[in-house]
Amino acid sequence: MNKPVxxxxxEIPADSDFDGAPATKVRGYWQSVGYRxxxxxxxxxxxxxxxxxxxxxxxxxxxxxxxxxxxxxxGRLKPFGWRGHPWGTDELGRDMMSRLIYGGRISLMMGLVxxxxxxxxxxTLGVIGGFAGKVANTAIMRxxxxxxxxxxxxxxVAISGAMGGGIVNGIISLSLxxxxxxxxxxxxxxxxxxxxxxxxxxxxxxAGTLTxxxxxxxxxxxxxxxxxxSSLVSVSILLASGLSFLGLGVQPPEPDxxxxxxxxxxxxxxxxxxxxxxxxxxxxxxxxFNLVSDGIRAAMDVRI
Amino acid sequence: xxxxxxxxxxxxxxxxxxxxxPMLIAKELQRHFKVKGAGKGAVVRAVDGVSFTLFKGExxxxxxxxxxxxxxxxxxxxxxxxxxSGDLVFDGDTVGETRGISVADLRRQVQMVFQDSYxxxxxxxxxxxxxxxxxxxxxxxKAESRRIAQDILVKVGLRPDLFGPRYPHELSGGQKQxxxxxxxxxxxxxxxxxxxxxxxxxxxVEAQVLNLLRELKRTLNLTYLFISHDLNVVRYISDRVLVxxxxxxxxxxxAADVFAKARHPYTQALLGSRLSMDSSKRIESPPIxxxxxxxxxxxxxxxxxxxxxxxxxxCEAEMPTLGQWEDRSSHVAACHMTNAQSGHSLAGTA
Amino acid sequence: xxxxxxxxAPLLEVEDLSVQFVTREATVNAVSGATFNLKAGxxxxxxxxxGSGKSVTLRALMxxxxxxxxxxxxxxxxxxxxxxxxxxxxxxxxxxTVAMVFQEPMTALDPxxxxxxxxxxxxxxxxxxxxxxARAQAIELLNLVKIPSAERRIDAYPHELSGGLRQxxxxxxxxxxxxxxxxxxxxxxxxxxxxxxxxxxLLRRLxxxxxxxxxFVTHDLGVAAEIADRVAVMYAGRVIEEGPVADVLRRxxxxxxxxxxxxxxxxxxxxxxxxxxxxxxxDLRRLPPGCSFAPRCSLAMPACRQGFPEPVFPAPGRMAxxxxxxxxxxxxxxxxx
Lengths: 304, 350, 337
Fold this sequence. Notes:
The structure holds 3 protein chains of 3 kinds.
Chain A: H1 29-38, H2 41-58, H3 60-63, H4 96-131, H5 134-148, H6 152-163, H7 167-194, H8 197-204, H9 209-245, H10 257-264, H11 272-300
Helix pairs in contact in A: 1-11, 2-4, 2-11, 4-5, 4-7, 4-9, 4-11, 5-7, 6-7, 7-9, 8-9, 9-10, 9-11, 10-11
Chain B: E1 24-34, E2 43-54, E3 59-63, H1 70-77, E4 85-90, E5 93-94, H2 103-109, E6 110-113, H3 127-137, H4 142-155, H5 160-163, H6 173-186, E7 191-195, H7 203-220, E8 223-228, H8 231-237, E9 240-245, E10 248-254, H9 255-260, H10 265-272, H11 313-317, E11 332-333
Parallel strand pairs in B: 3-8, 3-9, 6-7, 7-8
Antiparallel strand pairs in B: 1-2, 1-4, 4-5, 9-10, 10-11
Helix pairs in contact in B: 3-4, 3-6, 4-6, 6-7
Chain C: E1 12-22, E2 27-38, E3 43-47, H1 54-61, E4 69-77, E5 80-81, H2 87-97, E6 98-101, H3 105-108, H4 115-127, H5 131-144, H6 150-153, H7 163-175, E7 181-185, H8 193-210, E8 213-218, H9 221-227, E9 230-235, E10 238-244, H10 245-250, H11 255-263, E11 319-320, H12 325-330
Parallel strand pairs in C: 3-8, 3-9, 6-7, 7-8
Antiparallel strand pairs in C: 1-2, 1-4, 4-5, 9-10, 10-11
Helix pairs in contact in C: 4-5, 5-7, 7-8
């Protein structure tokens, strides 16, 4: 006899929500990331600092007490709080505070722009390499490996050296340095997604490669790529400062933290604190970006 | 609108050959995979000369242990994995030939449901979009696709307003599998390949999904290829059964026949390994010993001979053939014991 | 608990075991007040579906849960308070007193060591014997678990063995130090049918020969029927029914057990729907008040939603936590009478 216990087909429908599955709050991925971030006080705190630095850079003309270029032969290398210069002056008598605030503009630009460019180029190449067949993959990835083989700072120095100094050339060289790494991250993420069942299901329902990439791959690759990109910002700031320090990036008299560090270094024994200021600015900015990036990584690392 | 329980004549606007024309004929399908690091020229013979016929309106169960090639077979049938050789005839049209049916057309009529796993649905997509994706890429407008998705979600027993906007991680295993089924059906297929579609589910949920699959088949006139390692489930849902071993078909026949009197020793062993829910009917000694051999370099002759209790010299020398099948009631097995002329001492007894 | 049994001290006593996983967003009640015990030489099957807490219970017994798990209750193994063990004592408890066989030997074995290295390391650590002696014992163990040509296979790496042989090797490692209690977490689920039955029969024989108490976690009623002396059925972190395997599977006392049996595909007529249990198991972050099965239960009454039912003992050695045990027992038998 197969007559089962009276449990049988009761009036309870199969899909009913009595199991306590959340019916009220349906949270998408980005919503849940936002929720986690809102509750992460460390990341929020450092995020505020990053925001302040960015705002200071954007509104530099309104905040800075002096012009960053205004020199004064008498007022050179003055200490903290000297005659209306709260953070002193540099070796040409320019106001340190103003130069640091203006310098943030270039440093942040040098931190963000190469990363954005590298993300776009490297990400695209990576997705193509990850999704395309073996030949395209090999061609793209081996080319990237060639760049990857050099230490990043060395590569940046070499490219900048070959192209000459200046902000634009600095951005180009840093973009070139970051592209292979970005490409690799995107390729790995794509290759992982590519073998999942829902990609096969999409193929089975008749979708073409481009449609599949647009609907099913990009959204899932974006996460890891974004996380990696955010961690590159601080590296980019440091590298750009390094280039400027070596005279390969920003040229005088532009206010740039790396360049300031380089020119002030000769006054190390006269005004040690003043010399350290650009370095401190670089340090704080890059560490804040790093910590925020870490927080974002943790928030995005939701297994869903 | 009569979705009656009685079997109604097979009708579908896309039907070409009529009820007598099989839905799918597989002829000597073969797919080998190269393996790296396992010696020179090592290949996995995942699908090795598989032939069968799938009739319209039936459910063909495919059983076999891991590594027998049943999942590769499913992918070959949809051309997700291209066969090395062999032909596939869908409703009278050879797949991929100029005068036959294109792969794109095949995929509009044959769909696949995967095993529920973390990867069966796009985690970043609300399920209604996952279901609407198929119609959309097949040329339907966005609004139309969404409407189809809503209809199908109702059919699989999920309220679209409640479940449509959810993401996969907000669904239970059973609900996710309903969405997977909905996604396959949204394209409007005539045939559905179910690859271990209920295997990952809990028993209480598995029963719900099996009931749903039966109902959908009835109301939508579907033909199923049901792949599973669970013999009880296959016996319950299938009209006919195909047993695979190391990339080959070893037995094919009506489910009732195969389960009542299996002809191939491997099928007998599989059936003998089924556990009873009655603790007084415990199995005291295993029907066969050892593990299935690796599909790389399978044994010569009959591939089952290394584990077969009746293996003889002829089994090593010659590969047994499955024989001919005429219709739905044919019951054939690839074993020398079924062939009176094979020279096996037990020939003709099976 | 066991009404008619002789009052010998049980090998394992679990009382009111609770395990919570606390994260920033939610608290997951993986196990809530599980109580059961096990005599030496007995096989108890923890039967349940995914999320029922069966595997977490098993890991709690061996103290394998991560630090963020909050474990409460009392676990007594062979006279030792398992939850209080620390350091050295805990190390010799794991492997020495209690051993575990995992579901997936491929991930439970370290791929860079041979089967022999796994075995001899265990033997030397726990027994303090020499290298040659340990190897001899290892070969003996491999013979015990019926691995053919053990002298050759002892030097094989895990990936060189088939699934069935790997699981046998895993069992040999678990047995290497003569544990009093063997914990098995779905050890045959990943195996093919023809291999599963071989391993089950092997485990049953070894358990009888060596007289180990065994806890066997499974979701498969057939496996329970094949190997268990007693079964404890778990649902949403609680043991909701317990008793001798023949009695429970022949005449379940809890509606969930009955429903599970009816919904398991097993010789049902192909033209009939299967009596599925509607709905899905509760969210362990938000357990419903009262009986956690009540929302899916066709026998539920208002009282079921008030509090979790206290244990009732419908027959000697049997326990069920349901207000309607009498009604369930009167139902026609679930599967092929």
